[in-house]
Amino acid sequence: MTVVKVLVVEDEKALLKVLKYNLEKEGYRVVSASDGEAGLDLFRRERPDLVILDVMLPKLDGFEVCKAVRAGGAGARTPILMLTARKEEVDRVLGLELGADDYVTKPFSTRELCARVKALLRRASDRGAPAAAPLRAGGLELELEKYEVRVRGGLVTLSTKEFEFLKILFQAQGRAMTRDELLEKVWGYDKSMEIDTRTIDQHIARLRDKLGVEAARIVTVKNVGYRLKTD
Ligand code: CA
User: Fold this and answer.
1) Which of 22, 36, 107, 148 is most buried, judging by how many CB atoms fall within 10 Å of its CB?
2) Neighbours of ion ligand 1 (CB under 5 A)
3) How is domain 5-126 classified at the architecture level of CATH?
4) pLDDT surpassing 70 at residue 193
């Protein structure tokens, strides 16, 4: 069974601690941030199953974080439970513009909060069987079925060959692939074909360019080929 990951974004240290303690006691894995920017960044990198989001936060408030989560990509449907301090915030929280899934008003009991979390997760899993989990290495994500690659949440456009290279490196799970192996897998290379192994290096260079901040995940193994840094 996979562990459910919950992201908590809350700037009150004491409350964050209590939430973390109680959620972990329920068996969830908790990642946390204490401002909106860090929270959004963490959301994109960690792909949590649920987000608990305070409204009033430094840097980027909970409304902005919620909007950004809903606006983009694969995580757009992740359940969001908002923590509000004032009644006036509630309408906005549940409004169409933001689309949070639920809220609790401070102060709340952790028992109540955990019950809401459970209900939201149940609802999310009822929405149908999830697609096969994407392959991941740090902030790099590859979805085989959709032919999609994301770098820290942002979609990256790759050529078919570049995608194939990346897929093969992922599937090797950190093992080094020789240039010959790569040639064979990507082009179905046989010795009669004249493809220079340097072609591989050119493709890899382009792929690295496109992977930007995650480029260093593709490691050159001297005199051998390439491997994907998965940790
Ligand atoms: Ca706050």
Assistant:
1) 36
2) 11, 54, 56
3) 3-Layer(aba) Sandwich (3.40)
4) no
